[in-house]
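Weekly modeling sync, notes
Attendees: AB, CL, MP (scribe)

Item 1: holo prediction request
CL wants a bound-state model with guanosine-5'-monophosphate before deciding which constructs to order. AB pointed out that an apo prediction alone won't tell us much about the pocket. Agreed to run with the ligand included and paste results into these notes for async review.

Input as submitted:
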Amino acid sequence: MYPIHRAKKGQVFIISAPSGSGKTTLGKELLNSLPDLQLSISYTTRKPRPGEQEGVDYFFLTREEFEKKRMKGELIEWAEVFGHYYGTSRKRLTQHLQQGKDVLLLIDVQGAIQIMEKLPRVVSIFVLPPSRDALKQRLEERGTDTAEEIQRRLKVAEREIDYWSHYDYIVINETLTEAVEKLKSIIVAEHSRQEVMKDVVQRLIDDFRPRQR
Ligand code: 5GP
C-alpha cells in the first residue's frame, strides 16, 4: 500500500479531535500500519495514567521543567488543556523530518494552529464523532472520568468543533476500520502531491535524459 518512490524529506501530519473521539486508538492503528510514520511524543505536566510510560506515551515533566523548556524556546507549540500543559519538542520534530520520517502530531486545536502558522506545509486532519450522543457514550464507556468531568469534556468538544475550518481534512469516526482507512488514504494521497514528488520526478527526468558528459 505504501509508495516506494517517495520524497526523501518527511511530512508533518496533525490529527486533532475532541477528547473521546478515538484519536489515540486511531493514531496507534496508523503507526502500526505505516512504518515511515513516527509519533511525536509530547511533553506534559499531567500525571501518567495507569499503563502510560515515560518516553512512550509522553515525557512527563513538572510545571517548572515545562516552563524552563518553554522559556528557552525548545517548544514549537504548547497549550494548556484541561488544566495541564502540553507541548511539542522543536528539536525532535526537526530530527524526525530530516531522517525522512513522517511525523504524526496528536495535539489539540490551539497547538495545531500554532504549527500551521509556523511550518510551511503541514497536513491537518480533524477527527469528529458521528454525534454528541456518541461522544458522550464513548466518554462514559471509557470509565476514566466522573459525570462532572464528562460534562466538562463535552463543553470543550463543543468549542473545539468551531475550529473545523482550519483543517485540511475532516474524518468522522463512525467505525474504527473505516476511519483508519480514510486516514491512511489521506497520508498516501499527500505523498503523491506534485510539489512533494518534485525531487522524485527530477530523478526520473535525469534517468530518461542523462546529462551530456
Ligand atoms: P490527554 O491528557 O488525554 O492525553 O490529552 C489531552 C489533550 O491534549 C488531547 O486533546 C491531546 O491531543 C492534547 N495534546 C497532547 N499532546 C499535546 C501537545 O504536545 N500539544 C498540544 N497542543 N496538545 C497536546
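Recorded for review: The pocket of guanosine-5'-monophosphate is lined by residues 19, 42, 46, 77, 79, 81, 86-88, 106-108, 110-111 (CB under 6 Å).
Action items: CL to compare against the apo run; MP to circulate these notes.
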